[in-house]
Write a structure and sequence with these properties.
- The chain contains seven helices and eleven strands.
- The chain is of the alpha+beta class and about 280 residues long.
- It has two domains: about 40 residues; about 230 residues, Extracellular Endonuclease, Chain A (3-Layer(aba) Sandwich).
- The strands form three sheets. The protein has a seven-stranded antiparallel sheet with strand order 1-2-3-6-9-10-11, with helices on both faces.
């Protein structure tokens, strides 16, 4: 009799354990799926947003709703921020009911423990310069909020941030409306030795910045490089090929494209093709 009772108890415990394990396994799968969907958002599956960061460069990929930040955990600024901008999004950004910049503030990126705090830039003499501009993110409350994450920010002198950099951002906004769809990448030109800011002096200040723009429907691309200073001559005089930006930064843009197409579009630097 005792053997029968013992067998029943063991059997019940075993079945309970299997049921608990199955529940945990099922719950874990659901949570993991939700996490991927939450983090990738609208950027999921867009291979044109894939870039290759040079080997040996500190990098963590942070996919958000409207952009991906390839964040440098050593310098605490992004290696590259890349996003897609469509004519539909531009129309939403320019509509009367679009999100207002004044309603948002800078915040640390909850996805990245190395993200700076907004206060790390205080009294530094530098603006919190957007790589993916807030003006292109006003089509969505979430995208606007995430554009103020500090993993989308670099230290820029005000003369650049509110000058030639902003003028190019506005031009790209117009180009997206005209060309229907653009892929835009922006980031710093990193050097071995850079000035630093922040309470712990661990946020690097780039000496220069780049932008790269690709119009898939028109089959053309162009790059720009600006020193972190007041720029004279306008953005057009700083146009370069994407090949040149790749040589300066070591980053491989649009690496998902067919090699022949990639080589073709990245060789041109004529701003006349964008007027």
């Amino acid at each position: 009799m005792k053997k029968i009772i013992s067998f029943v108890i063991v059997t019940v415990m075993l079945l309970a354990g299997i049921a608990f394990f199955a529940f945990k396994l099922s719950s874990g799968t659901t949570e993991a799926s939700a996490e991927v969907l939450h983090y990738d958002g609208a950027t999921a599956g867009n291979s044109l947003l894939d870039v290759r960061i040079p080997a040996g460069v500190k990098n963590v990929r942070l996919p958000h709703t409207a952009y991906i930040s390839y964040f440098n955990t050593k310098h605490r600024i992004p290696n590259c921020v890349i996003y897609e901008l469509t004519a539909t999004q531009v129309a939403q950004c320019d509509a009367p009911g679009a999100e207002k910049r004044k309603n948002y503030q800078f915040n640390a990126d909850p996805m990245c423990s190395a993200s700076p705090q907004w206060s790390d830039y205080k009294h530094s003499g530098y603006d919190r310069g957007h790589m993916a501009p807030a003006n292109d993110m006003k089509w969505s409350k979430t995208s606007m909020e995430e554009s103020f994450y500090m993993t989308n920010i670099c230290p820029q002198l005000h003369a650049l941030n509110d000058g030639c950099w902003r003028k190019l951002e506005l031009a790209i906004h117009r180009w997206a409306k005209r060309d229907k769809r653009l892929i835009i990448a922006a980031g710093p030109v990193l050097k071995n030795v850079m000035h630093t800011i922040g309470p712990d002096r661990n946020i690097s200040v780039p000496a220069a910045f780049y932008k790269v723009v690709y119009a898939p429907n028109q089959g053309r691309a162009i790059g720009f490089i600006f020193n972190n200073e007041k720029i004279s001559g306008g953005y057009a005089s700083h146009a370069v090929s994407v090949d040149y930006v790749e040589r300066v930064t070591g980053i491989d843009f649009f690496c998902a494209l067919d090699d022949a197409l990639e080589n073709k579009i990245e060789a041109h630097s004529s701003i006349d093709m964008w007027k």
